[in-house]
Amino acid sequence: MASFALPTSARKAALVAVASGAAAAAIVLLLVGSWIAAAGFFAAAIVVIGALIAWRLLNPVAKDAPRPVDWDLTRTVAEAGADAIAITDRAGRLVCANDAYEALFAGFPTPPGLPLDEAGIAALADAGRSAWRDGTAQVERLNTQGIQLSAQIARAGDDADMLVWRFVTAQEHDLAETLAALLTGPTGDRLGGSGIMAALLSPDGRVRSANRVLRARACGDEYDSIQGRDFARFLITDSRGLVRFEREGLEGTPLRVLQIPFLEGDDAPVLVALLDDEEDAPALGASASAHVRSLVSMMPFGMALVDRDGRFLQMNDSFLRAAGVNAVAPPLYPGDLVVREDKAAVADAIRKFANGATHSADMAVRLKDHPDEPVALTIAGARGLGDAAVLLSLKDNSEESRLKREVAQATKMQAVGQLAGGVAHDFNNILTAIIGHCDLMLMRHSPGDSDYDDIQQVRTNSNRAASLTRQLLAFSRQQTLRPQILQLPDVVSEVSNLLKRLMGENVRLDMTHGRNLGPVRADPGQLEQVVVNLAVNARDAIVSANARGGGVLTITTRAVPASEVREMASDILPVADYTALIVQDTGTGIPPDVLPKIFEPFFTTKEFGKGTGLGLSTVYGIVKQSGGYIFADSKPGQGATFSMYLPVHSAPATTRPAVVKPTPKPVDLWGTGTILLVEDEDMVRAVAERALSRQGYTVLTAENGEVALEVLAKHGRPDLLISDVVMPQMDGPTMVRHVREQYPDLPILFMSGYAEEQLRKSIDLDNVSFLPKPFSVQELAEAARDVLATR
Length: 791
What we know:
Radius of gyration: 39 Å
Number of helices: 23
Strand content: 15-25%
Number of strands: 28
Largest sheet: 5 strands, antiparallel
Shape: elongated
């Protein structure tokens, strides 16, 4: 008899139906006490539950459709790093790659078909198959155009249907890998042209790499077979101890073998240089010394030779750059490169290695020109190099140090910006109370009263403080902007007459505008403030440089295409099309120790009582909030240059709208109705309540969102709800969402010391108005009247 088995899911469903029916029958038996009723309920439960489960099995819920991949976001994330990154799909097609990948491989070839040798392509293909199988794979020692690479491949994606290829270039400290690649390439050929045969040997004496001339002399026509073979087997020694190539026999040219210890450790590879000794003498001749100097000068890393007396014999170009040495007037001793505290340690180490120490050592020293950034100095004893007794190696970390300074500065500016924004927000609450109470007192006094002038003075100073908080908010990128699509030359033209008056008679103002400038999206009023602040600072620098104030201020606008940005190779400025505004002066310039601090709030180099130190910080905040970048460049005594880059807006530019006179508002601010005022600051709530009550409104108050809901439940619907945005326990937007559930058309007026556009991101509500702090009594009354008038 044929047998069949239910599917696993069906068997599970049957068990669930029986168990559910039995449970239901037990409950009925317990409640009713009738076995007949329990049995009937058991059968009915099995039928119903079984039908539901069967329908569920026959109609499975479809899985969520896969979300499309946001390749723009993926590429942006890939651009954040310096490594070359590419992504391929299951069919092996290239779907995404960053700019570093394009620059490394001169285009967008699809892995594993990269510009590598056959062995490298094969190894990369095997690693790709391993990554599909195991999830990850890695390949070392790939070589493309003389660059040493390692590849890391990982399977990724929601359906694990993508491969992420990451190519990492060899670091400078990996000298063995770099040197092995250089010896087999053009660098090795240049060494051969200078008469130097060079080979890199593994610790057991086998050849890892050798230049072309050594391979030809040692192996002849079969010189490609030298790799991996014992190097000593290629040499022979005669009775006088002279070394020759075994292939050339005893009649061949004698050789001088130089061993260069450039890495420490028993397992470190050895660099060997061979020179023809045509003089047939054991000592190293002058011609050989010249070859050694040629070898040192061609090294891609910083190297220097020091004699037994501790004096420099030679420094190659990389060493000069790393140490910041003036090639015209080089130092005599290595100790002259470092700070006074490190001189003795360097001199002792060189003396020790010059007297016989054969290993190498690393020292952390501080260069005289950069005392705050320690660098690694490698010292090794030298043998067979003529007058040279010590070999020095110094890593050029200027680029790394620059990146560290920029990251530290950006982090500091971000932290200071957050602090400034928080201080400005709290200070705005205090100023709102001060200005409001001044307005209330002025209502009880008239001009000529003994107290009127004093109150007016307090109010004036409060407004000055309010302008400072606006500058702090600008620096912290939390001010309210009104962006438009415009052209930078139009903004400069708007303030040109004002700039001419500010510059005076002795400072000449030159303005140059480029062609084909792309439109930008920014607040025109704030951009005008940027131009004025930069121009005023430039004027002060010019006056300081010349007692008579003579000088030139140049303002230039020009287009900066993406190709030019790519050539800049900036780690801060993303590759895109920009419109640049450049302000350049012929003033005193900015000292190097001051330059990193100029955009910080309250930092100023002016005399005490002159300037608040918020001019350039305001400029920085406006530019960053507009999506742009600003850089300062200066050399003491040669003036300063400020370069501002705003991204080109894709939409076409529009001319600035003509000024339209607003419709005059009614002078009468008297109103009627009930207003619910929600504010967590007692002083702001008190002055706002008094101000609105004076205008005829009935005011209900609450100190947070929860209390406001209780007041609404007790008193019913008000005519207007005025609320702060940021409050403890329940914030304003959350409270309004609960209120709108009951009163969907209730007018809302939010007030806050933060920027409106920043708050709009968290306020997903329609038909709400906004009143920035600090505000006066009249501004509050006008805002309430306007909102109520639009009901």
